[in-house]
Amino acid sequence: MVDIYYIIKCMQKIKKLLNFWLPPILWALLIFSFSSFPTVKTSEFFLGDFILKKTAHIVEYGVLATLLYRAMINSGIEKKKAMWIAVVTAVLYGITDEIHQSFTPGRGPAVRDVIIDTIGASIFIFGILKNIKKMPLIIQNMYNRYQISNQ
Description:
By secondary structure, this protein is mainly α. It has one domain (19-145). Helices cover 73% and strands 0% of the residues. It is built from 5 helices and no strands. It is globular. The termini are far apart.
């Protein structure tokens, strides 16, 4: 006989798994897809082009680390451990992304980009999450609304 309680529990676990782990997976796929396009000049001014692209790296990997952190703390991993794992995972993904770019026409791997990815992940995790109580109310509300805390 089918145990309805067991089925409901399984469905709830699957929903929670998808709710917290699907966003970082989709975000990683988005980063991968951006890396699949040949490089595009965004500005005639080299410094402007450089700043725009490197800011994108910081945000991309900061968001990835934050989504990973969110998934981990909502899966029962202790906050401090989740912070470190999120940053390390984002950096490792950044390394694989640079390898992927070596196969994309007009692109190539750059250690500088991995360093910038590391800075982005670290700023978001250690800079923002460690200081959330000092942030403007709007950021604190987003932190709570998107379950970036397991409280």
